[in-house]
Amino acid sequence: MNITIQPEAIVSLRGFEMPERLGFGTVMAPVMFRARYQDGRWSDGELIPYGPLSLDPAAKVLHYAQSCFEGLKAYRYGDGVGLFRPERNAARMAHSARRLCMPPVPESLFMDAARTVASHCATLIPGNSGESLYLRPFLMGTQPDLSVTASKAYEFYVIASPSEAYHAGNMRLWVEREDSRAAVGGTGDAKVGGNYAASLLSIAGLKERGYDQSLWLNPGNRHTVDELSGMNFFAVMDGALHTPALNGSILEGVTRDSMLALAREQGLEVHEREIDIDDLLALVASGTCSEAFACGTAAIVSPISELGDGDQRYRLQQAPGPVAELLRRSLLDIQEGRAEDRFGWMQKV
Ligand code: COI
């Protein structure tokens, strides 16, 4: 694939000044990647200045939400730049696209896009541990047409944001017993905006009640744990690591998979299984479940200090606990190049 680097993109990069405070996802790199799909084929890609998109008000994405996205990170790695498991994101984006009847972005296009953005933004990758260049690829149907049919035209972008981790510190979770984030047979295992939109009402107002995030239950049975709005859930019980098994309504997190691999490597007992919420709360109350944490690309590993259910609060004994600390450190050591990449996760750009 040919990739055009627009001269204006290079000018934007030269003029970019990195702000002192980053936060997560608020500082945007001054360039972005774009490719277009029309008449059954993808265009070549181009690196262009970051800026507003021009969309027809009747574009399918604005009405029927034909869009999906990804999140992956680029790190300073050795003498260059490293992407963490980008092929997993490419595969998941293809899965999400198929679920919404969109043409999957070919893996080669996805990888070229991620590499192009990461390499041109190399000087924007922050250097403190836990910081990175967060890449946000997204795909959307742009055909102007109000009929409820799949778009015939699509655009694929990769934008980038020099960022800190999404959540710092401990999280207090509210067990959401009323609403669902995804439906049975729906899009829970696809990375689509609608899942996140459906979670917002539950999260709104949580802070005032002393919580940070909702913990979603399975939409089919309403009593087993699925995940958080943008992170997978883990609990440590009697020294063993437990996480909800993939069931069609849980997003298959790249960090989730990495946690499982690192835990097994450490000799920890690992269980992917259904976790009943009432059993979990009882085990937290008795101290058998001593720690819990959530993980995701953006958040890395976030300890959970409390689970709230109705007017009951259940405190975890250890937050952060030793397992979360060990796995977080082991992951960052690989991502930031301090440890050998024994799983072959890093791709040098
Ligand atoms: C990620 O971890 O990459 C996510 O997509 C979570 C989020 C900030 C929506």
TrEMBL record:
Pathway(s) annotated for this protein in UniProt: Amino-acid biosynthesis; L-isoleucine biosynthesis; L-isoleucine from 2-oxobutanoate: step 4/4; Amino-acid biosynthesis; L-leucine biosynthesis; L-leucine from 3-methyl-2-oxobutanoate: step 4/4; Amino-acid biosynthesis; L-valine biosynthesis; L-valine from pyruvate: step 4/4
Cofactor: pyridoxal 5'-phosphate
Keyword Glycoprotein on entry: no
Residues that span the membrane, as ranges: none
Pfam short name (any one): Aminotran_4
Gene Ontology molecular function: any one: branched-chain-amino-acid transaminase activity
Highest taxon listed in the record's lineage: Bacteria
EC number: 2.6.1.42
Swiss-Prot/TrEMBL catalytic activity: L-isoleucine + 2-oxoglutarate = (S)-3-methyl-2-oxopentanoate + L-glutamate; L-valine + 2-oxoglutarate = 3-methyl-2-oxobutanoate + L-glutamate; L-leucine + 2-oxoglutarate = 4-methyl-2-oxopentanoate + L-glutamate
Keywords: Amino-acid biosynthesis, Aminotransferase, Branched-chain amino acid biosynthesis, Pyridoxal phosphate, Transferase
InterPro entries: Aminotrans_IV (IPR001544), Aminotrans_IV_CS (IPR018300), Aminotransferase-like (IPR036038), B_amino_transII (IPR005786), BCAT-like_C (IPR043132), BCAT-like_N (IPR043131), BCAT_family (IPR033939)
Keyword Transferase: yes
Family to which the UniProt record says this protein belongs: Belongs to the class-IV pyridoxal-phosphate-dependent aminotransferase family.
Function: Acts on leucine, isoleucine and valine.
NCBIfam families: ilvE_II (TIGR01123), PRK13357.1 (NF009897)
Identification of the protein by name: Branched-chain-amino-acid aminotransferase
Native organism: Microbulbifer salipaludis
